[in-house]
Amino acid sequence: xxxxxxxxxxxxxxxxxxxxxxxxxxxxxxxxxxxxxxxxxxxxxxxxxxxxxxxxxxxxxxxxxxxxxxxxxxxxxxxxxxxxxxxxxxxxxxxxxxxxxxxxxxxxxxxxxxxxxxxxxxxxxxxxxxxxxxxxxxxxxxxxxxxxxxxxxxxxxxxxxxxxxxxxxxxxxxxxxxxxxxxxxxxxxxxxxxxxxxxxxxxxxxxxxxxxxxxxxxxxxxxxxxxxxxxxxxxxxxxxxxxxxxxxxxxxxxxxxxxxxxxxxxxxxxxxxxxxxxxxxxxxxxxxxxxxxxxxxxxxxxxxxxxxxxxxxxxxxxxxx
Length: 321
Hints:
The chain is α/β, with parallel strands linked by helices and 321 residues long. It folds into two domains: 5-106 and 293-311, Rossmann fold (3-Layer(aba) Sandwich); 108-284, NAD(P)-binding Rossmann-like Domain (Rossmann fold), CATH 3.40.50.720. The chain is built from eleven helices and twelve strands. The chain has helices at residues 42-49, 66-70, 90-96, 108-123, 126-134, 158-170, 183-189, 196-202, 222-227, 245-253, 293-311; strands spanning 5-9, 30-34, 54-57, 77-80, 99-101, 150-154, 173-177, 192-193, 205-208, 233-236, 259-262, 282-284. Strands 8-7-6-9-10-11-12 form a seven-stranded parallel beta sheet, with helices on both faces. Helix 4 packs across helix 6 (158-170). The radius of gyration is 21 Å and the shape is globular. The two termini are 33 Å apart. 40% of the residues are buried.
């Protein structure tokens, strides 16, 4: 009989797929090895994956760049417990014939709900006022009414589309920007497409929802922030590298913007000395927008579905193109 397929989870920390009933679905297909800690070095990462034919990348902090992929000649497939694939060098994966499968749009409702929670928290100054009360200070500042305001959605994939839907439900006008706008999609989503600079000038809330690519890296920098309204709210639920965080910190320290709600950062975990932590009017979460029991298990199920589809000869959600 042929050797069982070797399936490895290289670093499940914080816990994502460990203990999931979906892992048991792989038993008929191969032998699953799960590492419940992050690899501490390049060598340890390679050692964990060396014999794997399939990796289930449950945490984006475990990355697979060109040198690492080339060091794994047995590797045939990587399934991610995520929508994003920026932790994997897709061009090299394609060159090596490694299938990479993500989960587009699977947890969009959970992510959009989380970003709306950050929007409300910023608008009502919840983190700032909580900190003031805990410090024994009765500090009153005007909050922001969101109904009737304009939501600017940057990127109208699955998450951006859900942001637009929630914005309309709240009574917000919705405008959007994307690389490839169309009248049909604008009508379907109930929004109006505009140029990016126009969106930044017009929106009261700017929500970043694009995937990270060469075209979106650094999309919002000092020039773009300067275009925004003085009392605007900025949300980033995309990827940290889409936004120049230093430029945002400078703007916040200058008293611009009502504040910002951020779930993603260029460096994760966020360093204890990160300048954004010194900004008053921010609400921050640790890349946790889809961290609900329901969303976590949806991603676990989707990753296992992708592995089984690959092993049965019908790969799906292949993004290494």
